Amino acid sequence: MLMPPDYHMHTPLCRHAVGEPTDYARRAVERGFTEIGFSDHAPMPRDNFDNWRMRADQLDDYVARVEAARRAFPQLTIRLALEVDYLPGQETWIRELAARHPWDYFIGSVHYVSDTWAVDDPQQLGRWKTHDPFEVWTMYFERLTQAAASGLFNIIGHADLPKKFGHRPPRDCTPLYEKFLAAAKRHGCAIELNTAGLRKDCREIYPSETLLRLAFEHGVPITFGSDAHAPEELGLNFAEAIQLARRVGYTRCLRFAGRRAETVLLN
Question: Could you tell me the residue ranges of all domains in the chain?
Answer without folding.
Answer: 12-265
